[in-house]
Amino acid sequence: MLKATADGSWSAVHPEFGAEFHSRYGALREAQHVFGSEGFFAWRSAHPHATHVRVAEMGLGTGLNAILTRRWAAQEGLDLHYEAWEAYPLPDHERAAYADRMGWTSAEQTWLAGLTLHTEPVTLQSPLPMAEFDLVYYDAFGPGVQREFWTEAMLHRWLDLLRPGGVWVTYCAQGVVRRALAARGWHVDRPKGPPGKREMLRVVRPLTP
Ligand SMILES: C[S@@+](CC[C@H](N)C(=O)[O-])C[C@H]1O[C@@H](n2cnc3c(N)ncnc32)[C@H](O)[C@@H]1O
Questions:
Q1: pLDDT for the residue 208
Q2: From the CB of 186, is ligand 1 less than 6 Å away?
């Protein structure tokens, strides 16, 4: 089911978990802030000469982060490889309705339908590509909905997708999550959050082990 958010953009509600995919204060504003300004563009300012970028997303959902990243990469003249994990892809009619309400072009929709998608449900045992990505967008449902995505063991597996110098971001700022991330020994910071949230979390993989 699609749902309007406060900035005029749209979100969705998961039929099985009953959870909303985005902030009710604004799906677009949240994505632009957490995954854009504090994720993609934080990585870009540290790598101004890069010519390509590899992005992994846990939880493709509507594809909003993917479409925005395609636009950001084009704006920056970067070749983009985008890979996502999503066990419950939106039904075609809902995906099309979402794209329509968000004003995505047909070229954007075709690109989204063709990107590398892992559809096996993610578990602690899932094979994940190590050290291959410049950016990881960790957009799982929150600890109140899916606690298993926020354990130290699971978080560290997703941190390990990063290349040295890579940037990992999530909208979640809970202390227990921050401490679990910090236990990996890499730099964790707490940028200001999107509307409705005080903070978010970001991890940068050191350049040297
Ligand atoms: C917060 S939503 C992602 C929102 C999405 N990034 C967007 O912009 O629309 C979390 C996503 O994780 C997916 N998910 C939940 N459990 C999963 C699992 N075990 N493996 C893979 N995906 C899962 C859900 O279907 C949902 O799309």
A1: 84
A2: no
Total domains present in the chain: 1
The CATH code of the domain that includes 174 is: 3.40.50.150
**Parent domain of 135:** 27-204
Ligand 1 centre from 95 Cα, in Å?
A: 14
For 18, residues 6+ apart whose C-beta sits below 8 A from its C-beta are none
Token reading at 35: 């995954």
The answer to the question of residue 3 being in a domain is no
Q: How many CA atoms lie within 13 A of 115 on its CB side?
A: 24
Two structure tokens written together for 144: 């109140």
87 lines ligand 1 (CB under 6 A): yes
- Look up tokens 């096996």; give the residue: 120
pLDDT per residue over 89-133, tens digit each?
999 999 999 999 999 999 999 999 999 999 999 999 999 999 999
Contact 156 CB / ligand 1 (< 6 Å): no
The reply to whether 192 falls in a domain is yes
Cβ of 14 closer than 6 Å to ligand 1, yes or no, is yes
Residue 88 C-alpha to ligand 1 middle, in angstroms?
A: 7
121 lines ligand 1 (CB under 6 A): yes
Given this model, what pLDDT does residue 122 score?
A: 98
